[in-house]
Amino acid sequence: MFKLEPGKRYMMPAHFGPRPSSPKSSFRYNDITSMTVPFLTDRDSLAQYLPEPLEVADNALITVTYACNRNVDFLAGHGYNMIGVSAAVVFNGEQERLEGNYTLVIWENLADPILIGREAQGIPKIYADIQDHSVIAGDWSTSASHFGHKIMDMSISDLRAPTPDEAEVYGKPGEGKDNPMGWRFLPAIGGCGQGVDELTTFPSKTTLSDIWIGQGKVDWQHLTWEQNPTQHHIVNALAALPVLVELPAMVAKGSADLLLPHRPSRAIASHRDN
Asked: How far apart are CA 38 and CA 177, in angstroms?
């Protein structure tokens, strides 16, 4: 009879044993190339997507990020692409207050990080075909699609070296605000009702080696159920967020550690008893 071993990490199908690992394996991402396009949006439009007790931060900031992840340790050196959308928020809990970014959605083009992120950390990850970035005459671009229909296009142009102040701001997160958050929601068996329902935080550390500043643009498609039956409501909601102020975009190269022993991923609030 199969039994779970205490202290081991399991994912479905758990009856085959703990999640495979190697002495060479860690959650270090050794080679990341990223594009980041931030903008300010309408507070009320953003607030409708934030579960309690999250609130919109002082600035209603949306950040769209593309990352080309290569030489990923836990994938034995393989990699994948991602496009994520996050919002600057404040968590006002009963025991603590956190400032950080709430992940609205992340698309990735590989099942393994999607499953780990959803099950173990509460990150709302879903699948899309994500093109490797291209660079033509100094302009960077990428795109995502699903079911053969475009989800979005993303580009950054007019790149230049950052000023000293920009390098300081863009090179590291704001003091006390490096708290990425997600909503780990799993419905009850059958798909209706409340199963697992908790807010999470999953700290990581990113080190940037090169930064360029430019002008960014994100173009969302407006999709029908026939074009994208499982995600059209997500894409259309993001497309409807107004862009009130465009902020400087960034292209960067660097690395990241997604597991920090001194700051492990954890639940910060549970709605199960509500």
From this structure: 16
Residue 70, domain member (yes or no)? yes
In a domain, 8, yes or no: no
Task: Identify the sign of the CA torsion 221, 222, 224, 225.
Answer: positive
Element (H, E) at 235: helix 232-240
Q: Which domain holds residue 222?
A: 22-258+266-270
Angle CA(202)–CA(248)–CA(107) in degrees, nearest 5?
Answer: 40
Question: What are 57-72's pLDDT values in tens digits?
Answer: 999 999 999 999 999 9
**Helix, strand or coil for residue 83?**
strand
Contact 55, 92 (CB under 8 A): yes
Q: How far apart are CA 28 and CA 202, in angstroms?
A: 14
Q: Are 59 and 101 in contact (CB under 8 A)?
A: no
Q: What is the pLDDT of residues 144-186, one digit of tens each?
A: 999 999 999 999 999 999 998 888 877 766 555 689 999 999 9
Domain count along the chain: 1
- CATH number, domain of 172, equals 2.40.400.10
